[in-house]
Design brief:
about 30% strand, globular, 4 strands, four-stranded mixed beta sheet, single chain, 3 helices
């Protein structure tokens, strides 16, 4: 996408990110049906990664499966393209 490379299951500051673009310092996380109800873990993870200069965007598995063009557009926008 946009000539960018994404690594799969990349570790940053002790957290594993599902997909990570080093050049854009962008992480993409996918969520299944079981999610931390209050998002506490995600919030802490996001703060920790933001401190390392990493932005995170999240999608549900359902979004990826049924709304892929929308997901790809959000990724393009996050990458500045």
């Amino acid at each position: 996408m946009l000539g960018l490379k994404f690594r799969r299951r990349h570790s940053v500051n002790g957290y594993v990110i599902a997909f990570y673009c080093i050049s854009k310092q962008l992480g993409i996380e996918l969520r299944g049906s079981v999610v931390d109800e209050d998002g506490e873990f995600d919030s802490y993870k996001d703060l920790t990664l933001a401190g390392a200069g990493v932005r995170i965007i999240r999608f549900t598995n359902s979004e990826v499966r049924y709304q892929l063009p929308k997901v790809l557009d959000r990724i393009r926008i996050a990458c500045g393209g």
